[in-house]
Structures are given as C-alpha cells and as structure tokens.
Amino acid sequence: MPTPSGLNLSSVFHKPSRLKWLLPLALMACVSNANAEATPAAPGADDFKKAQDIIGQNRPEALKLYQRAAEAGNTDAMVDLGYQLGQDGNMTDAAKWYQQAAEKGNALGMFNLGWDYANGKGVTQSDTEALKWYKKAAEAGNANAMVNYGWLYETGKGVTKDQAEAFKWYQKAAEAGNVTAMYNLANCYENGRGIELNMTEAVKWYRKAAAAGDNDAKKRLMALGL
After folding, report:
1. DSSP 8-state secondary structure symbol assigned to residue 19
2. Where are the strands (E) in the chain, listed by range?
3. pTM higher than 0.85, yes or no?
4. How far apart are CA 91 and CA 24, in angstroms?
C-alpha cells in the first residue's frame, strides 16, 4: 500500500495515544447548541433564555431560572440545571435531571446520563445502562455520544467487543465534525482496528483533527515525521 510522501515508516506501528472519549456537556458547552434560541413555544422558554444570558454574571439567579424552567418541563433547562448541580458536586440531583430530560427525548440529556452511568456519578455504575443511553443519543444525532458509544464497543464495556462497530460510529461522528472522533478514526486506520490498515486515511484524519486543534493528533503527526 502506498504511504503518504515523507512518512517516517519507523514509527508507523508504534502504538499511539490511547483512544479518547468525552466528558458530559451542558448546552452552554456544546458548540452546536450554545447559541441556539430557546423555542418560544417550549415550556419555560423565557426563563431558560434568561438563565443562559446571565449564568456568567449572576449564577444564583440563573440557577433559580433553570429550576423554574425545568420544573415547567423544559428539557434543555433540565440538562443545564443538571450540569450546574454536577459542577457543585451534587451528582445525584444532576443525574436525576439528566434522566428526566433523557426520558423526554433530549439527546444531550441522554448523553450526559450515559456518561454518569459509565462513571458511576450520581447513579450506580452500569456499562449496560451507559451503552443504552449513548445509543439513544447517538441515534438521535449527538456526535459526542457516537464517540462514547463507539468507545464502549472498542473496549468491550457493556457489550461484546466489536472494533468494526466502533469504527462505524467514530466515522459517523468524525464526518459530523467531531474532533475527538477524527483522532479515534485516524487511530483505527493507523492500527487496522475495525478497518483495513490505511496510513493515507490515518494521516488525513490526524491532519483534520490537528487542524481543528487536537494536540494529540499534532503529536502523532510529529511522531510520524509529518
């Protein structure tokens, strides 16, 4: 198989940095949703929007607004309230709000709940439950969940190890613009996990991840002499 011009072949088969997965995100930390307007018709939309606007200046008041919006049934507020409670160390209540949002169909709530189950934060640790909620979030289009769902298949946590299935979800997330997925996809191509070894594709995805600011991808390219 042809290799990219200038590739340092002596480092091709050195084991790269471990695969990465993602921590829980709140809407305010999620690039695709951070600046989204609250749907006017959604319950508690005004309180949710006000909370978003003032969280950096008046956190106590923002928490009250998130709570009111969440109790009115606003699932985005449930997620952000859960995130803020988690930041305060109240993981049990955080998980409860993620659960409520997830059960009402909020993909980010599903993702965060999956992470809580994977790590035993606020709930009893369960790879099976983590897999279930990551799957629901991934199928709802959450790219972060796609990465962690793939990672569970990669490592065989809560499911039979399946590198091809892991690759599939990394690829979906990478093509959706997720930087961690780009790195993991390159890692799979470099080592022939779940896909035929292909250094051209590996370098391509490492470069995409590096261009998006991923330091591990930058280090890997340097190790490869690129």
Report:
1. P
2. none
3. no
4. 12
Asked whether the beta carbons of 133 and 117 are under 8 A apart, the reply is yes
Sorted by where each begins, the domain ranges of the chain are 9-223
Amino acid identity, residue 89?
G
* Per-residue pLDDT tens over the stretch 38-79: 566 678 889 999 998 898 899 999 999 999 999 999 999 999
CATH superfamily for 9-223 is Tetratricopeptide repeat domain (1.25.40.10)
Cβ-proximal residues to 140 (8 Å cutoff; 6+ apart), any chain: 105, 107, 110
- In the predicted structure, residue 34 carries a pLDDT above the cut 80: no
What values do phi and psi take at 62, rounded to 5? Answer: -60, -40
Backbone angles phi, psi at 71, to 5 degrees: -70, -20
Q: Which two tokens stand for residue 91?
A: 């993981």
Between the alpha carbon of residue 15 and those of residues 2, 51, 103, 224, the distances in Å are 20, 45, 40, 11
State the residue for tokens 């250094």.
199
